[in-house]
Amino acid sequence: MKQIAAGKFKAHCLQLKDEVQARREEVVITKRGKPVAKLVPVVADPDPIFGFMRGKIRVNGDIVAPVLSLEEWGDLG
């Protein structure tokens, strides 16, 4: 893990952010030799809304066809 002094980080912040993104490695920012912050790459989580019901629903029969036939619709009126 790379370490960098806070003053040096301030001067090279944009360059370091690009390096962290490209190399996927963390950088510890120190002040007087003690760690005060950590710059880490962002891990993109998949959107939980898509696919969360996968494997929990079963389709029985035709889901496109009408539920009632034309004759059954006529009986309702």
Total DSSP E strands:
3
Q: In percent, how helical is the residue content?
A: 25-40%
Gyration radius, rounded: 29 Å
Give me the side-by-side strand order of the main sheet. Answer: 1-2-3
- The chain-level structural class is alpha+beta
Largest sheet: 3 strands, mixed
Q: Number of helical runs?
A: 3
What is the averaged pLDDT score?
88
Shape designation: rod-shaped
Compute the separation of the termini in Å.
76 Å
Helix and strand pattern: EHHEEH
**Uncertain ranges:** none
Domains (count):
1
The percent range for strand residues is: 15-25%
Detailed description of the structure:
This protein is of the alpha+beta class and 77 residues long. The protein has one domain. 31% of the residues lie in helices and 19% in strands. Strands 1-2-3 form a 3-stranded mixed beta sheet. A hairpin with a 2-residue loop joins β2 and β3 (34-39). The chain starts with a strand and ends with a helix.
